[in-house]
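Q: Given only this backbone (180 positions), what sequence would you predict?
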């Protein structure tokens, strides 16, 4: 399931106990603030309504700078929020890898015991997420293509948005079971 896979990936990266974020951001206060802002960004990506609070964008922008991600913009949709979340997952992973090599170089590998399994989990979850994303995108394209070719057969379908690549997204709840 796409959403569950994305949630698993999110948790393996941003869990405050042993997620990769613990290796990427050493300052506990900044890490906690980032975690709260990321949770609200994640909620926005999952629900489509803006769950970000005043100050969250500044926290995300500051953390993006720490992670070497450059400038970010406020998400305008669930898809934008999901894309931004993915960018933070990648940035956090890259920074964690960099910091782990520094820890190892300076003989501090004991501190890493708790998070090393999450590197493996993150890679596995990332692969599952990519597969699920590709399957979801293919399904959307197939449904959209069918509705576009034969709109007279799908009059109860309503276009409710567009996928990242511009493919229309249809709400097909208005169609009878046979047509679905």
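A: Predicted residues:
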């Amino acid at each position: 399931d796409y959403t569950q896979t994305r949630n698993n990936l999110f948790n393996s990266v941003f869990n405050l106990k042993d997620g990769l974020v613990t290796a990427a951001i050493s300052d506990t206060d900044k890490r906690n603030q980032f975690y709260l802002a990321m949770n609200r960004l994640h909620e926005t990506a999952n629900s489509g309504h803006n769950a970000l609070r005043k100050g969250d964008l500044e926290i995300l922008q500051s953390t993006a700078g720490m992670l070497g991600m450059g400038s970010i913009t406020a998400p305008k949709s669930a898809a934008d929020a999901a894309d931004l979340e993915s960018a933070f997952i990648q940035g956090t992973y890259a920074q964690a890898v960099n910091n782990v090599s520094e820890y190892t170089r300076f003989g501090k590998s004991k501190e890493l015991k708790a998070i090393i399994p999450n590197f493996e989990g993150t890679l596995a979850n990332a692969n599952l997420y990519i597969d699920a994303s590709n399957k979801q995108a293919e399904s959307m394209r197939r449904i959209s293509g069918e509705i576009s070719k034969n709109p007279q057969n799908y009059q109860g379908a309503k276009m409710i948005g567009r996928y990242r690549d511009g493919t229309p997204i249809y709400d097909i709840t208005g169609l009878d079971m046979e047509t679905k």
